[in-house]
Amino acid sequence: MYFTESMGMNVGTAIVPTFIPIDSVKYKFNNLTGSNRKAYFLTKWTDPAATTDFYRIMLHKGKPANNSETDADIRDRLFNGQPYAQVTRYRFNPNDTVTATLYHVDTLYFDFRQSIRDARNANGNPFSQPSSIHSTVRGGIGVFTVLVKDQKTLILK
Known about the structure:
This protein is mostly beta strands and 157 residues long. The protein has a single domain, classed as Sandwich (Immunoglobulin-like). It is 10% helix and 39% strand. The chain is built from 1 helix and 10 strands. The strands form 3 sheets. Strands 6-5-8-10 form a 4-stranded antiparallel sheet. A 3-stranded antiparallel sheet has the order 1-2-9, with no helix packed on it. Strands 3-4-7 form a 3-stranded antiparallel sheet, with no helix packed on it.
């Protein structure tokens, strides 16, 4: 896909990834009581074998518009063509509402997010390599992308 600003100065490029459904979401509480009772959360999906795929998984407590509890970028290098489960540590409380959002993203968006992370980590560190931002926008810095997502929500009882 190409999109051009009306003055013809900025052009964005994106690939539309296929839809990858979440197979299941589960949780399990530890054996503690009171305020120490916490649950981990597991999100499982099946990666297609024919392609190299990139994902962004986000977990939100409460409404998905709130800040995320988890925001991870994942490459399928170690699980290509197989089921994969992303598991948190014990951090959720009884009666929390947890929403898992799985984005199947293209390599351009994945590289952009990695470059942002690298630049942030290098900022202010005199011993690190400078890091440039990977951009998909000609005439600017940023990323133009298509987000394809699946979402599942559970109330932890």
